[in-house]
Specification:
6-stranded antiparallel barrel, single chain, Thrombin, subunit H, QueA-like
């Protein structure tokens, strides 16, 4: 397929700039993947669409306040760091603006010297490997100095940065939120569990490569970024039991989907694993373990739109997005949701 096949027109005013006061009150477009039928609900109605024996798979990663503003040591030139991947304790792969000031050996300071960094080497895409030095605990300093790395299409200031975290976030390491999970509240999750729905957690630390545009004409020539994931024995067992007993495995977000489909064998069986995945799911793809998906509305020509098209069918997604635009749904990270059932 061509990348241009996944383009659609989106009026800019439909890009959600702020989260709703109540996470679960967002709208929910329900799409039948076999029939193409469309229903319009609210997210809190998801409880009625899940049943005893189903399994909900959530990504419990937590977003780092990964954007740092500092200056070059000696000259005072302004610099912006965006943390991407932790290489080891104090070494990170980062994106820099402006990058020309950052040759190996260059040093930068943040927070008046609370945090210092030295460029070690240049890597792919113009990124840098840097080594930080500091007194104390790195995460505490990052929490004090860093800002949430909101996507570029969000221009409003985020007043409460916990609103760019899921209520079940646990393991820090992401440069972006698994946004499908932002709709859940603790009360909603309790109602779901009380219905006999199993809740399983995976961890995938979301990289900014998720948002990078596909720059090739033929979809199959696109190279995916790698992201770190964890599936525990407990989670593997819950998913395997669900499949065995005829329940549905419902992933929350494309990140959870990519982890489960990476780990599942051809029979849909999972084993506990930790590693890096660069799985690229695009039509036609035969899903091994995932039966349904709760997701947000994705950018045109993105790998995320290609993934949901693989599950729901290209024509069904095309029609659903046209309907969502017509009905003035809110799009992207802080926007409304879709349930592909």
């Amino acid at each position: 397929m061509k990348t241009s096949d996944f383009y659609y027109d989106l009026p800019p005013e439909l890009i959600a700039q702020t989260p709703l006061a109540d996470r679960s009150s967002s709208r929910l477009l329900v799409l039948g993947k076999e029939t193409g039928t469309i229903e319009h609900k609210h997210f809190y109605d998801i409880v009625d669409m899940l049943g005893e024996g189903d399994c909900l798979v959530l990504n419990d990663t937590r977003v780092l306040p990964a954007r740092l503003y500092g200056e070059k040591e000696g000259t005072g030139g302004k610099i912006e760091f965006l943390l991407l991947n932790r290489i080891d304790k104090d070494r990170w792969e980062v994106i820099l603006k402006p990058g020309k000031k950052a040759k190996p050996g260059a040093k930068f300071v943040f927070g008046g010297g609370l945090l210092k960094a030295e460029i070690i080497e240049s890597v792919n895409d113009g990124n840098r490997i840097v080594e930080f030095s500091y007194d104390g605990v790195f995460e505490n300093i990052l929490d004090e100095l860093g800002e949430m790395p909101l996507p570029p299409y969000i221009t409003e200031k985020l007043k409460d940065r916990e609103r760019y975290q899921t209520v079940y976030s646990k393991h820090e390491g992401s440069a972006a939120a698994p946004t499908a999970g932002l709709h859940f509240t603790e009360e909603l999750l309790k109602k779901i569990a009380d219905k006999g729905v199993k809740i399983a957690y995976v961890t995938l630390h979301v990289g900014l490569g998720t948002f990078r545009p596909v720059k090739v004409d033929d979809v199959e020539n696109h190279k995916m970024h790698s992201e770190f994931y964890i599936i525990t024995e407990e989670t593997a067992n819950i998913i395997n039991e669900t499949k065995k007993n005829g329940g549905r495995v419902i992933s929350v977000g494309t990140t959870s989907t990519r982890v489960v489909e990476t780990v599942a064998d051809e029979n849909g069986h999972l084993t506990a694993q930790t590693g890096w995945t660069d799985i690229f799911i695009y039509p036609p793809y035969k899903f091994k373990a995932i039966d349904a998906l709760i997701t947000n509305f994705h950018l045109p020509e993105s790998t995320l739109l290609m993934l949901v098209s693989s599950l729901a069918g290209y024509d069904n997604i095309k029609n659903a997005y046209e309907e969502a635009v017509k009905e003035r749904y809110r799009f992207f990270s802080f926007g409304d949701a879709m349930f592909i059932r």
